[in-house]
Fold this protein.
Amino acid sequence: MSKKITDKVLWVGKTDWELKSFHGDELSTRRGSSYNAYLVRDAKTALIDTVWHPYDREFVSRLKETIDLTEIDYIVMQHNEVDHSGALRELLREIPGTPIYCTKKGEAILRGHYHEDWNFVNVKTGDKLSLGETELTFIEAPMLHWPDTMFSYLSGEEILFSNDGFGQHFASESLFDEDVADAEAMLYEAEKYYTNILCPFSAMVAKKVQQILDMKLPLKMICPSHGVIWKQRPELIIQKYQQWSAAYQENQATIAYDTMWQSTRLMAEAIAEGLRDELPTLNVKLMNAARDDKNDILTEMFRSKLILVGSPTINNGISYAISGLLEMIHGLKFKGKKAAAFGSYGWSGEGVKLITDHLQASGLEIVVPEGHRTLWVPDAEALETCRKYGREIAKAL
Ligand code: FEO
Protein backbone atom coordinates (compact mmCIF):
# COMPACT_ATOMS: atom_id res chain seq x y z
CA MET A 1 0.00 0.00 0.00
CA SER A 2 1.35 3.41 -0.92
CA LYS A 3 1.05 6.43 1.37
CA LYS A 4 0.74 10.02 0.23
CA ILE A 5 3.51 12.41 1.20
CA THR A 6 2.62 15.26 -1.17
CA ASP A 7 0.52 15.51 -4.34
CA LYS A 8 3.52 14.32 -6.33
CA VAL A 9 5.33 12.04 -3.88
CA LEU A 10 4.24 8.67 -2.51
CA TRP A 11 5.85 6.36 0.03
CA VAL A 12 6.03 2.87 -1.46
CA GLY A 13 8.39 1.19 1.01
CA LYS A 14 8.04 -1.66 3.47
CA THR A 15 7.63 -1.40 7.23
CA ASP A 16 9.43 -4.31 8.88
CA TRP A 17 7.97 -4.83 12.32
CA GLU A 18 9.79 -8.16 12.70
CA LEU A 19 13.34 -6.93 12.24
CA LYS A 20 15.28 -7.45 15.45
CA SER A 21 18.82 -7.24 14.15
CA PHE A 22 20.60 -5.59 11.25
CA HIS A 23 23.93 -6.16 9.54
CA GLY A 24 23.67 -9.77 10.69
CA ASP A 25 23.74 -9.42 14.45
CA GLU A 26 25.93 -6.32 14.56
CA LEU A 27 23.08 -3.91 15.27
CA SER A 28 20.01 -4.60 17.37
CA THR A 29 16.76 -3.18 16.00
CA ARG A 30 14.31 -3.89 18.78
CA ARG A 31 11.75 -1.44 17.44
CA GLY A 32 11.89 -2.86 13.92
CA SER A 33 12.61 -0.67 10.92
CA SER A 34 11.37 0.29 7.49
CA TYR A 35 12.89 0.33 4.03
CA ASN A 36 11.57 3.52 2.56
CA ALA A 37 11.14 3.78 -1.19
CA TYR A 38 9.54 6.78 -2.80
CA LEU A 39 7.69 7.36 -6.04
CA VAL A 40 7.77 10.83 -7.57
CA ARG A 41 4.97 11.25 -10.12
CA ASP A 42 5.28 14.24 -12.38
CA ALA A 43 5.39 14.43 -16.19
CA LYS A 44 8.02 11.74 -15.67
CA THR A 45 8.02 9.19 -12.87
CA ALA A 46 11.01 8.30 -10.72
CA LEU A 47 11.28 5.52 -8.16
CA ILE A 48 13.77 6.33 -5.42
CA ASP A 49 15.34 3.20 -3.85
CA THR A 50 13.70 -0.19 -3.28
CA VAL A 51 13.50 -2.55 -0.28
CA TRP A 52 15.33 -5.49 1.29
CA HIS A 53 15.41 -8.72 -0.69
CA PRO A 54 13.01 -10.83 1.47
CA TYR A 55 10.28 -8.33 0.64
CA ASP A 56 11.06 -7.99 -3.08
CA ARG A 57 7.94 -9.74 -4.43
CA GLU A 58 5.69 -8.01 -1.92
CA PHE A 59 7.23 -4.68 -2.89
CA VAL A 60 6.75 -5.19 -6.63
CA SER A 61 3.26 -6.56 -6.19
CA ARG A 62 2.22 -3.57 -4.05
CA LEU A 63 3.91 -1.16 -6.41
CA LYS A 64 1.75 -2.57 -9.19
CA GLU A 65 -1.34 -1.64 -7.18
CA THR A 66 -0.10 1.96 -7.24
CA ILE A 67 1.25 2.34 -10.75
CA ASP A 68 1.57 0.56 -14.06
CA LEU A 69 5.23 -0.36 -13.74
CA THR A 70 5.91 0.61 -17.35
CA GLU A 71 5.17 4.19 -16.31
CA ILE A 72 8.34 4.26 -14.21
CA ASP A 73 10.82 6.25 -16.28
CA TYR A 74 13.76 6.27 -13.89
CA ILE A 75 15.02 4.31 -10.91
CA VAL A 76 17.23 6.33 -8.57
CA MET A 77 19.47 4.20 -6.35
CA GLN A 78 20.94 6.45 -3.69
CA HIS A 79 22.83 3.65 -1.92
CA ASN A 80 23.10 0.04 -2.86
CA GLU A 81 23.39 -1.97 0.30
CA VAL A 82 20.95 -4.87 0.04
CA ASP A 83 18.34 -3.33 2.31
CA HIS A 84 17.71 -0.78 -0.46
CA SER A 85 18.71 -2.58 -3.63
CA GLY A 86 17.29 -5.97 -2.71
CA ALA A 87 14.17 -5.70 -4.90
CA LEU A 88 15.90 -4.41 -8.03
CA ARG A 89 16.21 -7.77 -9.75
CA GLU A 90 12.54 -8.59 -9.17
CA LEU A 91 11.52 -5.13 -10.36
CA LEU A 92 13.71 -5.16 -13.45
CA ARG A 93 12.27 -8.51 -14.45
CA GLU A 94 9.08 -6.51 -15.06
CA ILE A 95 10.64 -3.38 -16.56
CA PRO A 96 14.01 -4.37 -18.04
CA GLY A 97 16.10 -1.59 -19.43
CA THR A 98 14.76 1.08 -17.10
CA PRO A 99 17.66 3.43 -16.40
CA ILE A 100 19.19 3.24 -12.92
CA TYR A 101 20.59 6.57 -11.78
CA CYS A 102 23.38 6.08 -9.26
CA THR A 103 26.93 7.15 -8.52
CA LYS A 104 29.83 5.46 -10.27
CA LYS A 105 30.61 3.60 -7.06
CA GLY A 106 26.94 2.69 -6.84
CA GLU A 107 27.15 1.01 -10.22
CA ALA A 108 30.23 -0.95 -9.12
CA ILE A 109 28.43 -2.10 -5.98
CA LEU A 110 25.31 -3.13 -7.90
CA ARG A 111 27.42 -5.03 -10.42
CA GLY A 112 29.31 -6.69 -7.56
CA HIS A 113 26.11 -7.72 -5.82
CA TYR A 114 23.85 -8.76 -8.69
CA HIS A 115 26.22 -9.44 -11.61
CA GLU A 116 23.76 -7.93 -14.07
CA ASP A 117 24.44 -5.59 -16.98
CA TRP A 118 21.64 -3.19 -16.16
CA ASN A 119 21.12 0.22 -17.77
CA PHE A 120 23.26 2.32 -15.44
CA VAL A 121 23.43 6.11 -15.63
CA ASN A 122 26.18 7.54 -13.44
CA VAL A 123 25.48 10.85 -11.69
CA LYS A 124 27.54 13.13 -9.50
CA THR A 125 26.95 16.15 -7.30
CA GLY A 126 25.02 18.87 -9.09
CA ASP A 127 23.63 16.63 -11.83
CA LYS A 128 19.91 17.16 -12.35
CA LEU A 129 17.06 15.02 -13.58
CA SER A 130 13.99 16.91 -14.70
CA LEU A 131 10.70 15.22 -13.99
CA GLY A 132 8.44 18.02 -15.27
CA GLU A 133 7.47 20.71 -12.80
CA THR A 134 9.92 19.17 -10.35
CA GLU A 135 13.56 18.33 -10.68
CA LEU A 136 15.91 16.03 -8.80
CA THR A 137 19.38 17.32 -7.94
CA PHE A 138 21.89 14.72 -6.83
CA ILE A 139 24.34 15.33 -3.99
CA GLU A 140 27.04 12.73 -3.47
CA ALA A 141 27.52 11.84 0.19
CA PRO A 142 30.40 9.36 0.21
CA MET A 143 30.84 7.39 3.44
CA LEU A 144 27.46 8.39 4.81
CA HIS A 145 27.83 5.50 5.22
CA TRP A 146 29.07 3.68 2.10
CA PRO A 147 31.24 5.03 -0.71
CA ASP A 148 28.30 5.01 -3.12
CA THR A 149 25.86 7.04 -1.05
CA MET A 150 24.13 10.09 -2.46
CA PHE A 151 21.24 12.30 -1.46
CA SER A 152 18.61 13.65 -3.88
CA TYR A 153 16.84 16.98 -3.56
CA LEU A 154 13.43 17.42 -5.19
CA SER A 155 12.70 21.02 -6.13
CA GLY A 156 9.11 22.17 -6.11
CA GLU A 157 8.18 19.72 -3.36
CA GLU A 158 11.26 20.84 -1.37
CA ILE A 159 12.16 17.38 -0.15
CA LEU A 160 15.61 16.02 0.63
CA PHE A 161 15.81 12.26 0.12
CA SER A 162 18.71 11.33 2.38
CA ASN A 163 18.85 7.54 2.29
CA ASP A 164 20.52 6.23 5.49
CA GLY A 165 21.39 9.74 6.67
CA PHE A 166 18.93 11.03 9.30
CA GLY A 167 17.40 7.54 9.49
CA GLN A 168 16.17 5.51 12.41
CA HIS A 169 15.44 1.81 12.83
CA PHE A 170 11.94 2.56 14.02
CA ALA A 171 8.89 0.77 12.64
CA SER A 172 5.78 2.94 12.78
CA GLU A 173 2.40 3.20 11.15
CA SER A 174 3.00 6.95 11.30
CA LEU A 175 4.63 8.27 8.18
CA PHE A 176 5.69 11.57 9.73
CA ASP A 177 7.53 12.55 12.90
CA GLU A 178 4.63 14.76 13.98
CA ASP A 179 2.33 11.73 14.25
CA VAL A 180 4.64 9.54 16.31
CA ALA A 181 3.26 9.11 19.83
CA ASP A 182 6.58 8.05 21.34
CA ALA A 183 8.80 10.85 20.04
CA GLU A 184 11.42 10.12 22.69
CA ALA A 185 11.84 6.56 21.42
CA MET A 186 12.04 7.82 17.84
CA LEU A 187 14.81 10.24 18.73
CA TYR A 188 16.62 7.58 20.75
CA GLU A 189 16.58 5.30 17.70
CA ALA A 190 17.92 8.14 15.55
CA GLU A 191 20.80 8.58 18.00
CA LYS A 192 21.41 4.84 18.26
CA TYR A 193 21.45 4.72 14.47
CA TYR A 194 23.95 7.58 14.31
CA THR A 195 26.19 5.98 16.93
CA ASN A 196 26.28 2.56 15.39
CA ILE A 197 26.18 3.40 11.67
CA LEU A 198 27.49 6.91 11.11
CA CYS A 199 29.77 7.74 14.03
CA PRO A 200 32.95 6.45 12.34
CA PHE A 201 32.31 8.96 9.54
CA SER A 202 31.49 11.97 11.72
CA ALA A 203 33.98 14.28 10.01
CA MET A 204 32.30 13.62 6.68
CA VAL A 205 28.85 13.95 8.22
CA ALA A 206 29.73 17.39 9.61
CA LYS A 207 30.99 18.57 6.21
CA LYS A 208 28.01 17.19 4.34
CA VAL A 209 25.49 18.77 6.70
CA GLN A 210 27.28 22.11 6.38
CA GLN A 211 27.36 21.76 2.58
CA ILE A 212 23.62 21.17 2.51
CA LEU A 213 23.00 24.15 4.79
CA ASP A 214 25.22 26.31 2.59
CA MET A 215 23.12 25.34 -0.44
CA LYS A 216 20.22 27.14 1.30
CA LEU A 217 17.70 24.74 -0.15
CA PRO A 218 14.11 25.39 0.80
CA LEU A 219 13.32 22.34 2.88
CA LYS A 220 9.89 21.09 3.86
CA MET A 221 10.85 17.50 4.61
CA ILE A 222 13.72 15.09 4.98
CA CYS A 223 12.81 11.64 3.73
CA PRO A 224 15.32 9.03 4.96
CA SER A 225 15.42 5.39 3.90
CA HIS A 226 14.69 4.07 7.39
CA GLY A 227 12.06 5.17 9.87
CA VAL A 228 9.75 8.15 9.84
CA ILE A 229 9.94 11.28 7.71
CA TRP A 230 11.16 14.48 9.33
CA LYS A 231 8.33 16.84 8.44
CA GLN A 232 7.35 18.79 11.53
CA ARG A 233 10.86 19.98 12.30
CA PRO A 234 13.44 18.81 9.76
CA GLU A 235 15.80 21.32 11.35
CA LEU A 236 15.69 19.29 14.59
CA ILE A 237 17.44 16.27 13.09
CA ILE A 238 19.86 18.54 11.22
CA GLN A 239 20.79 20.20 14.53
CA LYS A 240 21.18 16.79 16.14
CA TYR A 241 23.51 15.68 13.35
CA GLN A 242 25.57 18.85 13.79
CA GLN A 243 25.90 18.06 17.50
CA TRP A 244 26.49 14.33 17.12
CA SER A 245 29.16 14.78 14.47
CA ALA A 246 31.16 17.21 16.65
CA ALA A 247 32.78 14.96 19.31
CA TYR A 248 29.43 14.73 21.06
CA GLN A 249 29.24 14.24 24.82
CA GLU A 250 26.90 14.91 27.68
CA ASN A 251 27.64 15.08 31.39
CA GLN A 252 27.67 11.31 31.54
CA ALA A 253 29.96 8.40 32.32
CA THR A 254 29.29 4.86 31.18
CA ILE A 255 30.78 1.90 33.00
CA ALA A 256 30.61 -1.34 31.04
CA TYR A 257 31.78 -4.47 32.78
CA ASP A 258 31.56 -8.22 32.72
CA THR A 259 31.78 -10.39 35.77
CA MET A 260 32.29 -14.09 36.50
CA TRP A 261 31.69 -14.29 40.26
CA GLN A 262 30.58 -10.72 40.99
CA SER A 263 33.95 -9.25 41.95
CA THR A 264 34.22 -6.99 38.90
CA ARG A 265 30.57 -5.98 39.34
CA LEU A 266 31.28 -4.94 42.93
CA MET A 267 34.24 -2.95 41.68
CA ALA A 268 32.12 -1.25 39.02
CA GLU A 269 29.52 -0.21 41.56
CA ALA A 270 32.12 1.13 43.99
CA ILE A 271 33.87 3.08 41.21
CA ALA A 272 30.50 4.55 40.25
CA GLU A 273 30.02 5.70 43.85
CA GLY A 274 33.45 7.32 43.77
CA LEU A 275 32.63 9.19 40.56
CA ARG A 276 29.44 10.52 42.10
CA ASP A 277 31.17 11.43 45.37
CA GLU A 278 33.32 13.83 43.39
CA LEU A 279 30.79 14.85 40.70
CA PRO A 280 27.27 14.63 42.14
CA THR A 281 25.64 15.82 38.91
CA LEU A 282 27.44 13.30 36.68
CA ASN A 283 24.99 10.87 35.11
CA VAL A 284 26.58 7.47 35.68
CA LYS A 285 25.34 4.43 33.75
CA LEU A 286 26.42 0.91 34.69
CA MET A 287 25.90 -1.76 32.09
CA ASN A 288 26.75 -5.43 32.05
CA ALA A 289 28.32 -6.11 28.67
CA ALA A 290 27.18 -9.73 28.69
CA ARG A 291 23.57 -8.91 29.53
CA ASP A 292 22.76 -5.47 28.23
CA ASP A 293 22.29 -4.79 24.54
CA LYS A 294 25.70 -4.02 23.04
CA ASN A 295 24.37 -1.28 20.78
CA ASP A 296 22.56 0.40 23.67
CA ILE A 297 25.83 0.30 25.61
CA LEU A 298 27.62 1.94 22.69
CA THR A 299 24.91 4.58 22.44
CA GLU A 300 25.34 5.39 26.14
CA MET A 301 29.10 5.54 25.59
CA PHE A 302 28.57 7.88 22.64
CA ARG A 303 26.74 10.24 25.01
CA SER A 304 29.50 10.02 27.61
CA LYS A 305 32.60 12.04 28.36
CA LEU A 306 34.06 9.08 30.25
CA ILE A 307 34.09 5.39 29.37
CA LEU A 308 35.16 2.83 31.95
CA VAL A 309 35.55 -0.79 30.96
CA GLY A 310 36.02 -3.67 33.38
CA SER A 311 36.63 -7.38 33.03
CA PRO A 312 37.97 -10.15 35.19
CA THR A 313 41.14 -11.73 33.83
CA ILE A 314 40.29 -15.08 32.27
CA ASN A 315 42.70 -17.42 30.50
CA ASN A 316 45.31 -14.66 30.46
CA GLY A 317 42.82 -12.43 28.67
CA ILE A 318 39.45 -10.73 29.04
CA SER A 319 35.86 -11.87 28.77
CA TYR A 320 34.16 -12.61 25.48
CA ALA A 321 31.59 -9.85 25.95
CA ILE A 322 34.15 -7.17 26.81
CA SER A 323 36.39 -8.28 23.97
CA GLY A 324 33.54 -7.85 21.48
CA LEU A 325 32.57 -4.51 22.94
CA LEU A 326 36.15 -3.23 22.71
CA GLU A 327 36.25 -4.23 19.06
CA MET A 328 33.09 -2.22 18.42
CA ILE A 329 34.43 0.79 20.36
CA HIS A 330 37.51 0.67 18.15
CA GLY A 331 35.39 0.66 15.01
CA LEU A 332 33.16 3.56 16.01
CA LYS A 333 36.12 5.95 16.38
CA PHE A 334 34.73 8.00 19.25
CA LYS A 335 36.29 11.43 19.60
CA GLY A 336 37.15 13.48 22.69
CA LYS A 337 36.39 10.88 25.32
CA LYS A 338 38.37 9.85 28.37
CA ALA A 339 38.65 6.24 29.48
CA ALA A 340 40.09 3.83 32.03
CA ALA A 341 40.02 0.13 32.85
CA PHE A 342 39.49 -2.03 35.90
CA GLY A 343 38.95 -5.65 36.81
CA SER A 344 39.40 -8.45 39.29
CA TYR A 345 41.95 -11.23 39.03
CA GLY A 346 43.22 -14.30 40.82
CA TRP A 347 46.74 -14.87 39.58
CA SER A 348 48.09 -13.56 36.23
CA GLY A 349 45.87 -10.44 36.03
CA GLU A 350 46.63 -9.17 32.51
CA GLY A 351 43.03 -8.15 31.81
CA VAL A 352 43.24 -4.51 32.86
CA LYS A 353 46.33 -3.82 30.77
CA LEU A 354 44.76 -5.50 27.74
CA ILE A 355 41.65 -3.32 28.07
CA THR A 356 43.72 -0.17 28.57
CA ASP A 357 45.82 -0.91 25.49
CA HIS A 358 42.71 -1.48 23.43
CA LEU A 359 41.01 1.72 24.61
CA GLN A 360 44.16 3.68 23.86
CA ALA A 361 44.40 2.15 20.39
CA SER A 362 40.80 3.23 19.86
CA GLY A 363 41.73 6.88 20.30
CA LEU A 364 40.43 7.39 23.82
CA GLU A 365 42.45 9.40 26.34
CA ILE A 366 43.49 7.08 29.14
CA VAL A 367 43.06 8.78 32.51
CA VAL A 368 44.92 6.23 34.67
CA PRO A 369 47.42 4.24 32.60
CA GLU A 370 47.81 1.44 35.13
CA GLY A 371 44.05 1.06 35.62
CA HIS A 372 42.80 -0.59 38.76
CA ARG A 373 42.88 -4.26 39.78
CA THR A 374 41.46 -6.13 42.75
CA LEU A 375 42.80 -9.54 43.81
CA TRP A 376 40.06 -12.15 44.34
CA VAL A 377 36.91 -10.84 45.99
CA PRO A 378 36.98 -7.20 47.11
CA ASP A 379 36.53 -6.68 50.85
CA ALA A 380 35.49 -3.37 52.44
CA GLU A 381 38.98 -1.98 52.13
CA ALA A 382 39.29 -2.98 48.46
CA LEU A 383 35.91 -1.43 47.70
CA GLU A 384 37.02 1.81 49.33
CA THR A 385 40.09 1.70 47.05
CA CYS A 386 37.71 1.38 44.11
CA ARG A 387 35.76 4.42 45.33
CA LYS A 388 39.02 6.30 45.56
CA TYR A 389 39.82 5.25 41.98
CA GLY A 390 36.46 6.65 40.93
CA ARG A 391 37.14 9.93 42.72
CA GLU A 392 40.58 10.23 41.08
CA ILE A 393 39.12 9.69 37.66
CA ALA A 394 36.36 12.20 38.32
CA LYS A 395 38.96 14.83 39.21
CA ALA A 396 40.54 14.34 35.78
CA LEU A 397 37.28 15.11 33.95
FE1 FEO B 1 20.11 1.19 4.97
FE2 FEO B 1 23.36 1.29 4.39
O1 FEO B 1 21.68 0.61 4.18
In short: The two ends are 53 Å apart (CA to CA). The chain has a mean pLDDT of 98. The pocket of MU-OXO-diiron is lined by residues 79, 81, 83-84, 145-146, 164, 225-226 (CB under 6 Å). The CA atoms of residues 15 and 173 lie 8 Å apart.
